[in-house]
Design a protein that fits this description.
Length: about 160
């Protein structure tokens, strides 16, 4: 028996794979499967075709594991980290990003800089601890309204006497 290949899939991809397999086994028609999958009929037909050709890995998105086209160049990353170590080592990511933009004309997102600093071991974010607020009984206020029922009691019922 040969070892099975493990494949990482999102929950949506796993659901779509199940639906495509149901279509291939003719237990489900394509139109209802497309509606359940949340995609068009044409997209489901493309998925069915790819699963027929490639098997279950055909359902996984093609760009998984590839670098983004919008990625910053590695030279920029190295230059920013060198500037940070030389001039802004005691700054947090937000202030450092502002100073890099102001003094060095480097347009960079604060979160990008923070991720680079954490990866290089130059920044360790502190977790914000939630403030503890102890519950206390509300204080009585002058002029506070008294809760009463809307019913009025008259005559012998008010005095506690029964009429029988």
């Amino acid at each position: 028996m040969e070892p099975q290949e493990v494949m990482a899939m999102t929950a949506q991809e796993a659901r779509r794979l199940y639906l495509v397999q149901q279509v291939l086994e003719r237990k489900l028609r394509q139109r209802p499967a497309a509606d359940v999958a949340g995609c068009s009929l044409r997209q489901l037909q493309r998925l069915v075709r790819r699963v027929r050709q490639e098997g279950p890995p055909g359902i996984v998105h093609r760009l998984r594991g590839r670098r983004s086209n919008r990625r910053h160049p590695e030279t920029l990353r190295q230059r920013v980290l060198a500037l940070y170590q030389a001039h802004y080592e005691d700054f947090g990511p937000t202030l450092a990003q502002e100073k890099l933009a102001e003094r060095h004309r480097l347009a960079l997102g604060r979160e990008t800089l923070r991720r680079w600093l954490v990866a290089a071991g130059l920044w360790q974010g502190r977790r914000q601890r939630p403030r503890h607020h102890q519950w206390r009984e509300r204080k009585a206020c002058c002029g506070e309204m008294v809760q009463v029922t809307g019913r009025t009691m008259t005559g012998s019922k008010a005095a506690g006497r029964s009429s029988s």
